[in-house]
Amino acid sequence: MNEHHPYEVRLATHADLPGARSVMLDTFYHEFGHGYRPQWHTDVVDLAGTYLDTPRHALFVAVTGDDVVGTTAVRAQGPASPPHPEWIARRYSGDATAQLFRVYVRSAHRRRGLARALVDAAVRFVAETPGYERIYLHTDTRVPGAEAFWRSVAVEVCDARDGDPDHHQTVHFEIPVPVLAGSVESR
Question: What is the value of pTM for the model shown?
Answer without folding.
Answer: 0.90
